[in-house]
């Protein structure tokens, strides 16, 4: 696992360097929103989605520079979603990744605008010829990313999660909500490599299965960390799901049941990687990490 | 002018029909955000940007279906910007286009999410093969639209406009802010046709000059309507610029000076259309309309 952490951190560093070059700068009075974008996108973070895009892409021999740009675009979308989800009118969080949230560090207007601009930048990065020589593949990336992050994906999932009354939610409802809210973008991360390269259809299906199970397990362990973890490890407020009336896997399955379910899903996720043998070791390590992480 | 209004309304109707088909629907609990997207994008509105995209596109013989899709994407971006600009943390407006703003009709969280999803949908529409057979041209549309709407364009302009102290603003500062905040998207509207068709470079430059002058004139008349217009005609709160300490053209040039400047800009905008002769009559009418409109 020590080696895995090193690889994860190396990917995170490379994505941060790429993002630093891609994020806009200005001497004008609009610099405030650009600083807020940097604060959100370059701050600490595990960069799991970029990592998945890079490592799945390497498995199918996609070009490194292309992968890095897609990884940067993914992190822009993730950072935008965190900024907007943290707003007072949404989850109203003051702490994220161990620091003040954007609307606390700056102000609400700047936070809304920084999120908007990061989302816009993500599409700008993908559309640029540097991302891939083929415009058709760039358009496919944009099509898939917009589907994963729009009203049928991440935004729709957050809308469902904002519902007032969740007393009648069952496991199917929560699963669908989480598939949209966090699963769709994780799935997109694993699609990047296949879109950028000429890989067999079976690889796409294997990654799809891997991402599906990993994404759900990731959310379940997130719920477990909210109950069992510390703010220091997670870098955000814990014990908040219960107080906000959030419907969670832990709430329905209990701590023991949720942990068992996460273990089953991780085993299943790794099974999808069998066709790749030893070459997929780092992705198996990532799956194990999701289960054992403390933040 | 009666004929122009008819053409403008016909374009608006066609864009509304296209948008209705492109906006997502669902039976699930995420339907709330989709309803808010429809409320914002399908509500009343002049649809000036879509009109410009369609008419400039016709002048260069771009395909109608492509133009209509780009016009719909433009209206999504415009609607998203209005939703977010109206939020309590921004301009805090209760009325827009003669109806309750999205956060008043729904709630703030839904308004943030509906804006996010409309922005995302705009890119999804542009990237789709139905927009244009050539993926390279779709990527160019996305590149230009993201530049016009991101931190260097519309979002950056709104950030500047949110500045607390504008006492030392001069005409250059206001002009730059408005170029970013509203001018960039109006310019993009006139670029759509040239991107979709094989037109001469001089056409691009002519449209660029036309859009530049028209965009500034549009903002000046907007400022004039805030001072002289009625809420009933404009469909939004008036006399708000002064009360919010907004820096406006009228504030610096005075009513008479602002009106003269708008007239000069409109004359200049029409000069750019000279090479097109009678074929550009509808665009000249649009320029005159910007000057005489009451809402």
Automatic annotation (TrEMBL), chains A, B:
<dbReference type="InterPro" id="IPR053378">
    <property type="entry name" value="Prenyl_diphosphate_synthase"/>
</dbReference>
<dbReference type="InterPro" id="IPR000092">
    <property type="entry name" value="Polyprenyl_synt"/>
</dbReference>
<dbReference type="InterPro" id="IPR033749">
    <property type="entry name" value="Polyprenyl_synt_CS"/>
</dbReference>
<dbReference type="Pfam" id="PF00348">
    <property type="entry name" value="polyprenyl_synt"/>
</dbReference>
<keyword id="KW-0479">Metal-binding</keyword>
<protein>
    <submittedName>
        <fullName>Polyprenyl synthetase family protein</fullName>
    </submittedName>
</protein>
<comment type="similarity">
    <text>Belongs to the FPP/GGPP synthase family.</text>
</comment>
<keyword id="KW-0460">Magnesium</keyword>
<keyword id="KW-0414">Isoprene biosynthesis</keyword>
<dbReference type="InterPro" id="IPR008949">
    <property type="entry name" value="Isoprenoid_synthase_dom_sf"/>
</dbReference>
<keyword id="KW-0808">Transferase</keyword>
């Amino acid at each position: 696992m020590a080696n895995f952490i090193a690889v994860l951190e190396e990917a995170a560093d490379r994505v941060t360097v790429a993002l630093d070059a891609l994020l806009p700068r200005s001497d004008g009075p609009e610099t405030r929103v650009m600083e807020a974008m940097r604060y959100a996108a370059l701050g600490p973070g595990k960069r799991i989605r970029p990592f998945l895009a890079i490592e799945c892409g390497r498995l199918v021999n996609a070009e490194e520079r292309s992968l890095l740009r897609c990884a940067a675009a993914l992190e822009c979308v993730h950072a935008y979603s965190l900024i907007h989800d943290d707003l007072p009118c949404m989850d109203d969080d003051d702490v994220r990744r161990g620091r003040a949230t954007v609307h606390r560090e700056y102000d609400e207007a700047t936070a809304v605008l920084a999120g908007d601009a990061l989302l816009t930048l993500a599409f700008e990065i993908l559309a640029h010829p540097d991302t891939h020589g083929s415009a058709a593949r760039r358009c496919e990336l944009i099509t898939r990313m917009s589907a994963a992050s729009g009203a049928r994906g991440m935004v729709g999932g957050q809308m469902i999660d904002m519902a007032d009354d969740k007393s009648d939610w069952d496991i199917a409802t929560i699963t669908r909500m989480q598939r949209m809210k966090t699963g769709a973008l994780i799935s997109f991360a694993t699609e990047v490599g296949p879109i950028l390269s000429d890989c067999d259809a079976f690889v796409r299906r294997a990654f799809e299965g891997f991402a599906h199970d990993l994404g759900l397990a990731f959310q379940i362990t997130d719920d477990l960390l909210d109950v069992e973890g510390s703010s220091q490890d997670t870098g955000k407020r814990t014990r908040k799901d219960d107080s906000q009336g959030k419907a969670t896997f832990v709430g329905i399955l209990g701590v023991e049941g949720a942990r068992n379910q996460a273990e089953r899903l991780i085993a299943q996720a790794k099974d999808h990687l069998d066709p790749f043998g030893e070459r997929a070791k780092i992705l198996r390590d990532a799956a194990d990490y999701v289960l054992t992480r403390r933040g």
